[in-house]
Amino acid sequence: MSHLTMENPLMNAPHVVAEPHILYLGTPVVLVSTVNEDGTHNLAPISSAFWLGWRGVLGIASGSQTAQNLLRTNECVLNLPSVNEVSAVDRIAKTTGVYPVPAFREAMGYVYEPDKFGRAGMTKVASDTVEAARALECPIQLEAVVAAAHGIGEDSDVLRGFISLIEVRINRVHVHPDVLMDGHANRIDPDKWTPLIMSFQKFYGLSGQVHASRLSEIPEQAYEPLAKV
């Protein structure tokens, strides 16, 4: 039961009830590279990802080539494009490594593409700890292994088995020096790093800092117990 009263100004807020078909409210784009069953390399853009410490959580369609590769090989590279790589990312949008193309993907205009790196115009670089290749042009590359996999929407007859929620553990981080903080070998400068953002299927970048942050007063070293575990 709500505790709001008629005197509460929130009661007069100018909101309306809406039912958007999607709720992609703004998340970073990630290019996930994995190894196909025939030894070739796959590269797929996703925008359902977040990190806590050196753990990442990825939301991926269960029938996708990326999900199949992840669950078979238990490894990947999470390549993080900046706004400068947006054209490369868009070139592999609406492509899939699955053949034949699943009906629901085909209805959306997806086409089969066995060489995602080539189509994107990105360069494969060997990783240090996994077989999946890194994308040279991405300023940040995270080598990772699968720690756990779960279904999402298991309470729904429609969603059950359709989406996989995959937790990965980051093994190694590669960072281009241009996005490192001056004088710090292990800190990414948020004023230099310009991640590519997907919001409601459109590409955006970040504006400048809009307000000082009290959280930024906490030294990054304070989070070290959560890292690399």
Provide a descriptive summary of the structure in words:
With 229 residues, the protein is mostly beta strands. It has one domain (22-226): Electron Transport, Fmn-binding Protein, Chain A (Pnp Oxidase, Chain A), CATH 2.30.110. Helix content is 11%, strand content 31%. The chain contains 4 helices and 14 strands. It has helices at residues 65-73, 86-91, 103-107, 116-120, and strands spanning 27-28, 30-35, 41-46, 49-52, 55-61, 75-80, 95-96, 111-112, 124-125, 134-135, 140-152, 163-175, 197-199, 202-204. The chain has a 7-stranded antiparallel beta sheet with strand order 3-2-6-11-12-5-4, covered by helices on one side. A 3-stranded antiparallel beta sheet has the order 1-13-14, with no helix packed on it. The protein has a two-stranded parallel ribbon with strand order 7-8. The longest helix has 9 residues, at 65-73. The model has no long low-confidence stretch (mean pLDDT 92).
**Largest beta sheet: strand ordering:** 3-2-6-11-12-5-4
End-to-end separation = 42 Å
Shape annotation: globular
Radius of gyration: 20 Å
List the domain count as a whole number: 1
Tell me the name of the CATH homologous superfamily.
Answer: Electron Transport, Fmn-binding Protein, Chain A
